[in-house]
Every structure is written in structure tokens, then in C-alpha cells.
Write a structure and sequence with these properties.
Elements: H1 10-30, H2 32-53, H3 60-78, H4 81-100, H5 104-124, H6 130-154, E1 159-161, E2 165-169, H7 170-190, H8 196-223, H9 239-260
Antiparallel strand pairs: 1-2
Helix pairs in contact: 1-2, 2-3, 2-5, 3-4, 3-5, 4-5, 5-6, 5-9, 6-7, 6-8, 7-8, 8-9
Length: 267
């Protein structure tokens, strides 16, 4: 029988995750300006968390980065993904002009967050399968998290990469990929009805990328001696702690989608 303390945070994590998921689902379902507004707000909050993690002094440059992260998502909605990227580039140039060029970690994190949120908005803008594509992305990342959580705690075993993330195990990683593959195959059958095996494979790949994003953020926080990016989300820490895997998965999903010219769950 599992030790109770292994799941001591499950109730809080579940409640917070459900509330966050409901908000995200509503915004993505509404689409258009409302989806962009939600993603832009998330981008702004995560860049603010980055300034806290990197201990960057507040000022005009910090305000510029926070504002342009949100603006880039809105511009992506009003125009194209490349227009949002131009806004992010302008944000970096403006921050450098204001003296922040010597803070490469903050600027790198800003670009990572901004590009990822613009990528989600770009996926949602697909007039045929925009909502389905974003829903698939969210569900795959959630499945990876759930599989990793229970696989790691129930099975345990060797650590995946202790230097990057001391808590993740091989069992949790494989369980997350397996659950994501099953979910992806079922999602494909229930929506487009295309080749489930191909969608399952892509789902497992995206789940693995999601885990990589999670470990990257864990390493980033440890580099600055920070446990959580903030205390915005009870049981999860900050938005960066909750969306780290989603951002990595979104970038890869957008790259596959735009390279193929069709959604990743269509084969």
C-alpha cells in the first residue's frame, strides 16, 4: 500500500489544476481575442516570474519585457505568428537599449515564454481544427503529468536525470509517455478518425518533450536557488511551474503543424 505522504499534495494539486484547466478550456473554446487575452496574460505573468527568479531589478526594461510578451500574443491573433515574433524581437532590442543586455538568462526566458504562448495562439488560429489542436496539446501534456506523477510515486525506481530534476524517474517518464500515447490514439479516433498509431507516436514524442521542458525549468530554478517560480497557484507554485512542459510541447507541436500544413492529430 502506498505511503500516505506520497500523495499528500494530491488534493491541492488536483483542485488548482482543475480550476486552471477550466479557465484555459473556456478561453480556448471562445477563441479569438479571448484566447489571445488569456495567453497574453499568462505570458506577462510568467515573464514577471522570470524577473523574480533572476532577481532582476524593476524598472522600464522589466516593464517593457512584461508588456511586449503579452502584446506579442495579441499581435499574433490580429496578424500572423511572425508578427508576434517581431514584437518579441523589438522587446529584446528595447531592453538592450535600456541596459538589460547583460541579463541573458532573463532575455532567453522571455523569448522562450513569448514564443511558446504565440505558438499556442497560432495553433488556435487554425479555422478548421484550431480548438481541437490546442485541446489535444493540453490533454497530452496533462496525461504526461498524470502518468509521471503516479508512475513515479507508485513504481519509483532509478532517477531519470538527477542533475536536472532529482524527483523524476524512468518509470514516471515512461508511464507519462504511455498514457499520452493512449490518449492521443483515442482522441484521433473520436475526432478526425485518422491513423491512431501515428497520432499515438506523435503524442508520446510530445509528452517526452513536455517532460524535457519541465526538467529544463527545474534546472533553471536551481541555478538561481529558487524552489518555485512564485506562489500564484497553490500546490503548483507559479505559472512557470505549471506551464513549463506545455511551452516546450507547444513549440514542437507548432513546428510539426506548420511544417506539415495540417494539425498533428491528422495523418
Amino acid at each position: 500500500m502506498a505511503e500516505p505522504q506520497r500523495f499528500a499534495d494530491l488534493a491541492t494539486r488536483s483542485a488548482t489544476g482543475a480550476a486552471l484547466g477550466a479557465l484555459a478550456l473556456a478561453g480556448m473554446w471562445a477563441g479569438g481575442f479571448w484566447a489571445a487575452l488569456l495567453l497574453g496574460l499568462a505570458a506577462a505573468l510568467m515573464v514577471w516570474e522570470l524577473t523574480v527568479i533572476t532577481r532582476s531589478p524593476s524598472g522600464a526594461a522589466t516593464t517593457l519585457l512584461i508588456a511586449t510578451a503579452a502584446l506579442a500574443v495579441l499581435v499574433t491573433e490580429w496578424g500572423l505568428l511572425r508578427h508576434g515574433v517581431l514584437v518579441l524581437a523589438a522587446g529584446v532590442a528595447g531592453a538592450a537599449a535600456l541596459g538589460r543586455a547583460r541579463e541573458p538568462w532573463l532575455l532567453a526566458g522571455y523569448l522562450w515564454v513569448g514564443l511558446a504562448m504565440c505558438a499556442v495562439e497560432g495553433l488556435r488560429d487554425d479555422p478548421l481544427y484550431g480548438f481541437e489542436a490546442v485541446l489535444w496539446l493540453f490533454l497530452v501534456v496533462i496525461a504526461s503529468d498524470i502518468g509521471g506523477y503516479f508512475g513515479g510515486r507508485l513504481i519509483g525506481g532509478p532517477k531519470l536525470w538527477p542533475r536536472l530534476s532529482p524527483k523524476k524517474t524512468w518509470a514516471g517518464s515512461l508511464a507519462g509517455m504511455a498514457l499520452a500515447a493512449l490518449l492521443g490514439a483515442g482522441f484521433s479516433r473520436l475526432t478526425a478518425g485518422t491513423f491512431a498509431a501515428e497520432v499515438a507516436t506523435v503524442s508520446a514524442l510530445v509528452a517526452l518533450v513536455s517532460q524535457g521542458g519541465d526538467m529544463l525549468e527545474s534546472w533553471f530554478k536551481r541555478r538561481f536557488g529558487v524552489k518555485d517560480s512564485s506562489r500564484l497557484l497553490p500546490g503548483h507554485g507559479g505559472l512557470l511551474d505549471r506551464l513549463d512542459g506545455l511551452m516546450a510541447a507547444a513549440l514542437v507541436t507548432a513546428a510539426i503543424t506548420f511544417a506539415r500544413g495540417r494539425s498533428v492529430f491528422l495523418w
